[in-house]
Amino acid sequence: MFKRAAIAIFLITLVSANKRPPWHHPQPDPTPNPPCRFAPGYSLEQVVQNPEPFIQDVLYWEGKFVQPGIGSLQDNAANGLTYDGTLINQTTGLTLPYASGRHNFSAASKESLHIMLLAQALTSSPSAARVLSPSDPAKAPEIAFKLLEQKLDTYLDFNRTYPGFGGFLPWYNNTFTKIEPTNDWVNRLPALDNGELVWAVYAAVQALSQVPSYRPLAAKWQAWLDYNAAHSAKIFYQGQGKVCAVATLNQSLPPNDPGQKYTCEGSMLLNDPYEGELFTWYLYFFAPSLSPADKTALWTVKRPMLQSTTYTTPQGPITVQKGYWFSAHEQWKILEMPYYDVDIVRRVFNNNERARTCNSQIKHIPGMYASVNNITDASNQIIGYISAAGIPSIAFIPKQELDVITPYSVFPTLFANRSVGAAWLWNMLQGKKMQNPYGTTESERVDGRGVSSFVSWDSKITTVVALGGGVGGLVREKLKGEGRHGEFLRVVEREYGRVFKDLKGEDIDFCLPKARVPDAGLKDYTNCKAK
Ligand SMILES: *[C@@H]1O[C@H](CO)[C@@H](O)[C@H](O)[C@H]1NC(C)=O
Ligand SMILES: *[C@@H]1O[C@H](CO)[C@@H](O)[C@H](O)[C@H]1NC(C)=O
Ligand SMILES: *[C@@H]1O[C@H](CO)[C@@H](O)[C@H](O)[C@H]1NC(C)=O
Ligand SMILES: *[C@@H]1O[C@H](CO)[C@@H](O)[C@H](O)[C@H]1NC(C)=O
Ligand SMILES: *[C@@H]1O[C@H](CO)[C@@H](O)[C@H](O)[C@H]1NC(C)=O
Ligand SMILES: *[C@@H]1O[C@H](CO)[C@@H](O)[C@H](O)[C@H]1NC(C)=O
Ligand SMILES: *[C@@H]1O[C@H](CO)[C@@H](O)[C@H](O)[C@H]1NC(C)=O
């Protein structure tokens, strides 16, 4: 059931400093109420030439998922926290009844997506407002403020009941007003998802501090960050730069209780140079007990996996960062921290997207790959979770399953080239059933023979947050205010600079889609079809 947690375990998982903040894209007057099945109404050329009208429609419909009751708890027990996602009826596209369709569980990673969106909304980001409050964009900051207030209450309440997690979140069960660890995360805590959560909160604190009346809430969230940081090393740090992927603990005992003992589960370490790095940064900057030698070692243990490799195209070779699978999911860290401020990283990451887009074009694949839920079967069950989806030739793990593509695979492409990212999104949405009353659909088979009738934070809000430029801008400002931005740049430059020197393929164009998902007889959802 919790296959996505497995990513955390097996992953062992804009814009330069002086330009305008990335969320200030020129905004056309959006269509107030675009039709549900809007994608076929655009041509590829239209989207490439000016992706903004299409993007406005995407944001409007993804907003239907973010509403309480679909993506987060409403009922009579509102707590502001996310659900993983919801199954939808294979004919109509409407949500199945809660009891059969809703994934009541969720995790810190999905919380990070929600909080990034709320942080963007607090800065009056037009894209976040289009998602949260399309009929009255001016209300978006207040909606975001209220949700952040409610979320913090729920987090603090959880911390009081289960102090052993040290304020962090395990996979949780969101069935009732109060959350609980899911059955399989009792007394266990993952680092990767919490790394994603803490930097989203960090961005939200920065956004809240910019509005005088929101500063008291900023201070409370900052206290949450500080409290968690105070024992983050005690929970996860093993010494010699080693960080546990999953810690085992006694959830009833506070971190400083003499009976509390934190140990690493198995031998899995969080040593990946992908999204797991967000937790490394948290320890690096904020764990008070780490010595300078520990801090250096945090990066040394990660070096074996930070590698350069080459993707070969008819236009020539492209130097890229070797992927674990080269799943788009691995690039999550660019949503949260200002990696694009570092020139060599920006250039390598743009090359990654040259490879991602050209690989699919050359092989006539109608979309791109990221770890995602498989299709649903005739009885409305998700068949499984496909972790191993990316580009085998430039990955550590070449054994992959490449029968399913997903719209959110475009989120890192959007950072490299917004038009090209939007074009691939458009292309995947041409597939039957790939739009539903809550926006984009989870995933589809490349042969057009099935889709996943499911909607989730991972497969939707990664793209939404990327369309708003991520929260790297907010994180940059706060790092600067704390005098840490220079150190961030130096360490990133040092680590990437020792691996990447002469890049090949920077003059190769990003590739546009050439193949479409074939029509294999599926019918669009009755509540989301072209008129
Ligand atoms: C899906 O909706 C159709 C039409 O309303 C209905 O007949 C069918 O029972 C629903 N399926 C499920 C699994 O709820
Ligand atoms: C999810 O929680 C709701 C209560 O919020 C409950 O009615 C429903 O049965 C639960 N769904 C599942 C699949 O457990
Ligand atoms: C969530 O809580 C309900 C009620 O206690 C329980 O039946 C269900 O198995 C729990 N779900 C998970 C995923 O832990
Ligand atoms: C979490 O709970 C502990 C008590 O177990 C408390 O000391 C601490 O202040 C709480 N954290 C926050 C941020 O309130
Ligand atoms: C956690 O600590 C409490 C209080 O000391 C104890 O009753 C309980 O058995 C412990 N749980 C585990 C899993 O060790
Ligand atoms: C995904 O579904 C296909 C059938 O469409 C099946 O062959 C494959 O084994 C499934 N893979 C996983 C990981 O669920
Ligand atoms: C995006 O890529 C297209 C196709 O390679 C190119 O024409 C365009 O100039 C690029 N835009 C930017 C902003 O790099």
Present as ligands are: 2-acetamido-2-deoxy-beta-D-glucopyranose
Q: Report the C-alpha radius of gyration, rounded.
A: 22 Å
Number of domains: 2
Task: Provide the β-strand percentage band.
Answer: 5-15%
Structural class: mainly alpha
Order of strands, widest sheet: 2-1-19
**Care to count the β-strands?**
19
Write down the oligomeric state: single chain
Q: What overall geometry do the principal axes of the alpha carbons give?
A: globular
Return the average pLDDT rounded to an integer.
Answer: 93
Q: Roughly how many Å apart are the termini?
A: 37 Å
InterPro entries: SGL_GH162
Keywords: Signal
Pfam families: SGL_GH162
Organism: Zasmidium cellare (Wine cellar mold)
